[in-house]
Amino acid sequence: MTIYGPYDEILPEILSLTTERIKQLNQQAVYNKQPKLYEHLIARVKTPESMTEKCERKGYPVSTESALRKCRDAVGVRIVCNFISDINRCLEQLRQADWCQIIKEKDYITNAKPNGYRSYHVIIDETAPYRDIDGNQPGHFYVEIQLRTIAMDSWASLEHEMKYKHNIANPERIGRELKRCADQLASCDVQMQTIRQLINSSAGEDD
Ligand code: 0O2
């Protein structure tokens, strides 16, 4: 058994349920003749090895309780949007959803990380028809949702890949170049948003 104990089998169920619920929010938007909420979704259960490493790094006991209650990203969904305004539309839908409550928000879009990382993170407390670690059924499960534009996502993927390349000759220079690239992409996102608004207003639509 892994750090997730009996939840090894339940976490993938929570993952599919969350993904389905988010897809339904999108289907509802499209049904209401609104633009799609996002371009694509990806979802993962954090590997037990990575969760164990996180608990150790944070000084938590390596236990199922820490993995599910102290860390709240065992289940993670990334929503990749076309435009910044779509991130806000997704957030609005999540705030209204009766199956979850947003309990924490980190706005790395308004406040980008010093390296240039941008994304909007929320932790939701999701209700699901499984017994949780506190004995409740339906249970409460934490899920981390990251919302980003395509530009933010492509930068984060490349930066993540490069993080693992050690023995780099000039890490400071690379860090500066990455930051510059992130800022340029952020300005493209703003430009794309403006273009969308111009197109929509000429077509007589909102946003
Ligand atoms: P993986 O494999 O993506 O899950 P906490 O102290 O628990 O509130 P936490 O979770 O330590 O905060 O950190 P935070 O800032 O909320 O961000 C966690 C996740 O955001 C990371 O997950 C990454 O997915 C992403 N992220 C944060 N900063 C960066 C960054 O600088 N570059 C990239 N590429 N991604 C980032 P994990 O656990 O690292 O990995």
UniProtKB/TrEMBL annotation:
One of its GO terms (biological process) is guanosine tetraphosphate biosynthetic process. Pathway: Purine metabolism; ppGpp biosynthesis; ppGpp from GTP: step 1/2. The keyword Protein biosynthesis does not apply. Residues 43-170 form the RelA/SpoT domain. GO terms for molecular function: kinase activity. InterPro entries: GTP_Pyrophosphokinase, NT_sf, RelA_SpoT. CDD domains: NT_Rel-Spo_like. It comes from the Bacteria. Pfam families: RelA_SpoT. Keywords: Kinase, Transferase. The keyword Kinase applies. PANTHER family: GTP PYROPHOSPHOKINASE YJBM, GTP PYROPHOSPHOKINASE YWAC. This is GTP pyrophosphokinase family protein. It comes from Limosilactobacillus albertensis. The lineage of its organism: Bacteria, Bacillati, Bacillota, Bacilli, Lactobacillales.
